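Input (structure):
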């Protein structure tokens, strides 16, 4: 029954003595904090240890030159225990658990940090390091354990404006870049690395992001590289009080006590000069090896040249491939064409257009390798062929359901995939390696509707026929026009168009024609022609559906007479001089002219490679660099990245306006430039 009472009493006694110790004055010497106690005559170190609940062995070690019984007034030192660390809860890892090694920081730099951050815990940072003036240690990298109280100072947390710009989704922080922020500064503020910022944001510049850009951040990812490492530390293990005598100098005391003079001065920062009767402290130093979790910062992160090198590594821009002779060729470009249906006329024509494009660059300073892969084969065979060839870019001809295994392959292998035909695929939205060659439906409709609304101001919109549920273009034009005029357009059956009574015989009218079948299109254009004859002074235009582009060959005269306006992602003008040269070159290589189709499939491949090959060569494969504008036969190209972690999209589309006497006006809507 007595044992529990004894234990409780002992615990209470220990608590009281510990509380008494905290009331003692403290002194910080060489970055380490000690309790100080003035001894009474006859006291012993063991008795003092028992009085304050201290470890007797540590007390003796700390005051190894003191002998019992103690003289009255003898100064006794005892290390102040570190406060226990608290969990940060929501954070992946706490900086207090990680030792950061920065080879660019020395004690001098750290001292400057302490001055800038007065609340930082200097004892924890400097306790294991000698004076910056010690030649043996002056260039020693700082191995720095941040305490919980330090984190608020050293993390460089964003201010209130930054915090409002940060959004966390699915464990990833989305940060809006503020003016003056740099990649390195952002990496330090969010405990990540510049390299990880590149990986999370493949579309970001290698230098600094622009203000207003949104980037993704894995906070705390810097600590993932922490490894247990044995490090050598010089620790202050004890202190000795010394009363200055006549004739003492810093040098003489240091020599007598076997300590570096600069260390002695650093231990007594309040003593500018030695005066007789002053009491100074002499630190007892000990070199020990301890295991620490070390995070080594890549020194390249702090310079623009270094960040460029990291950027090249992440984007595999320094990779080398082999030429046809087996020699390493740093300028070579390898192109893999994955044909969805190799037996189709479309894919055969596409492959021939690719051959023509490569052939035109045979004298260029970038040797090009081309391979054709049967995409109809099992996935494993296609991937095997790609891995064996190691292409710089992959081009696929699938027009629907872009294969995920292809998009995964290019992303995992730092390649790029050009999606030549599938306008409904959304792989480019989140995959930085995917290039959407033809404008997606949303881009296409919005560009066309915006251009028509802004260009044909003052025109009354008429809907001829009934819009079906698939007519997204018509719906976009209708929404834009209603928003602009605040009036619903007149709708009428297609067969009544010829007998329509116009409100203004000299007015301006846009007729959106809904039919998509060839015979229906011909019929509605005939009725429009009759309407134009009845109102010769009226300005009447017809907007056709994009699918009408396939009917141009057989209905060109009718299109001209009715001044048809066709939105399209492509237009091949066979009468254009560049197109004629292409047709002649095709005939020379293959013995016949290209297949007439819309798009012209051989011209599509020719445009793609004629644009990408020289640009890849000039930028060394950096798809974040500015690409030059090369003339194309059929589809205009200007690439935009949808965001810093998504792919590239070509938003350019045509508005083809047919005019009397066989002339055509082609307008690239994205740049609003006529060709």
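Output (sequence):
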């Amino acid at each position: 029954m007595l044992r529990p009472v004894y234990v409780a009493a002992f615990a209470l006694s220990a608590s009281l003595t510990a509380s008494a110790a905290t009331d003692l004055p403290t002194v910080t010497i060489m970055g380490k904090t000690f309790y100080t106690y003035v001894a009474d005559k006859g006291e012993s170190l063991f008795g003092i240890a028992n009085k304050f609940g201290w470890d007797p062995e540590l007390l003796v070690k700390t005051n190894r030159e003191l002998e019992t019984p103690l003289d009255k007034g003898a100064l006794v030192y005892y290390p102040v225990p570190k406060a226990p660390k608290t969990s940060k809860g929501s954070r992946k890892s706490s900086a207090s658990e990680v030792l950061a090694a920065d080879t660019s920081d020395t004690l001098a730099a750290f001292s400057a940090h302490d001055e800038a951050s007065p609340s930082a815990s200097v004892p924890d940072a400097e306790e294991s390091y000698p004076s910056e003036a010690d030649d043996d240690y002056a260039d020693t990298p700082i191995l720095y354990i941040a305490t919980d109280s330090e984190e608020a100072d050293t993390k460089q947390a964003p201010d209130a404006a930054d915090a409002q710009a940060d959004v966390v989704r699915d464990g990833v922080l989305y940060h809006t870049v503020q003016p003056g922020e740099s990649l390195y500064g952002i990496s330090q503020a969010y405990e990540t690395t510049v390299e990880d910022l590149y990986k999370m944001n493949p579309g970001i510049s290698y230098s600094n992001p622009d203000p207003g850009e949104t980037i993704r951040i894995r906070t705390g990812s810097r600590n993932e590289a922490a490894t247990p490492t044995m490090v050598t530390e010089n620790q202050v293990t004890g202190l000795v009080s010394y009363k200055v005598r006549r004739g003492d100098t810093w040098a003489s005391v240091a020599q007598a006590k076997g300590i570096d003079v600069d260390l002695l001065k650093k231990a007594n920062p309040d003593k500018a000069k030695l005066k007789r009767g002053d009491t100074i402290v002499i630190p007892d130093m000990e070199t020990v090896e301890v295991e620490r979790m070390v995070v080594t910062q890549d020194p390249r992160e702090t310079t623009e040249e270094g960040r460029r090198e990291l950027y090249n590594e992440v984007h595999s821009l320094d990779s080398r491939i082999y030429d046809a002779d087996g020699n390493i060729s740093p300028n070579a470009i390898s192109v893999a064409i994955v044909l969805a249906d190799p037996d189709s006329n479309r894919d055969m024509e596409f492959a021939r257009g690719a051959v023509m494009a490569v052939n035109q660059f045979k004298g260029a300073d970038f040797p090009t390798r081309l391979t054709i892969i049967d995409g109809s084969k099992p996935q494993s065979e296609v991937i095997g062929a790609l891995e064996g060839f190691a292409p710089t870019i992959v081009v696929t001809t699938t027009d629907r359901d872009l294969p995920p295994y292809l998009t995964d392959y290019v992303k995992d292998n730092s390649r790029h995939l050009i999606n030549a035909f599938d306008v409904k695929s959304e792989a480019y939205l989140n995959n930085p390696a995917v290039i959407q060659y033809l404008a997606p439906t949303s881009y296409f409709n919005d560009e066309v509707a915006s251009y028509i609304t802004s260009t044909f101001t003052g025109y009354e919109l008429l809907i001829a026929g009934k819009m079906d549920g698939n007519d997204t273009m018509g719906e976009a034009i209708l929404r834009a026009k209603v928003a602009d005029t605040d009036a619903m357009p007149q709708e009428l059956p297609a067969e009544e168009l010829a007998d329509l009574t116009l409100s203004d015989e000299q007015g301006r009218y846009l007729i959106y024609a809904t039919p998509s079948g060839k015979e229906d299109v011909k019929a509605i254009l005939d009725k429009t022609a009759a309407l134009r004859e009845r109102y010769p002074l009226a300005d009447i235009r017809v907007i056709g559906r994009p699918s009408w582009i396939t009917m141009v060959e057989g209905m060109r005269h009718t299109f001209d007479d009715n001044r048809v306006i066709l939105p399209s992602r492509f237009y091949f003008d066979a009468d254009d001089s560049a197109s004629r040269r292409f047709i002649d070159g095709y005939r020379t290589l293959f013995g016949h002219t290209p297949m007439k189709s819309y798009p012209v499939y051989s011209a599509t491949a020719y445009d793609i490679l004629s644009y990408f090959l020289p640009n890849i060569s000039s930028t060394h494969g950096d798809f974040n660099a500015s690409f030059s504008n090369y003339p194309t036969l059929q589809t205009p190209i200007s690439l935009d990245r949808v965001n810093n972690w998504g792919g590239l999209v070509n938003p350019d589309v045509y508005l083809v306006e047919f005019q009397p006497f066989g002339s055509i006006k082609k307008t690239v809507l994205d740049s609003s430039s006529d060709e």
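Notes: The longest strand covers residues 279-296. Residues 1-16, 86-157, 671-675 have pLDDT under 50 and may be disordered.
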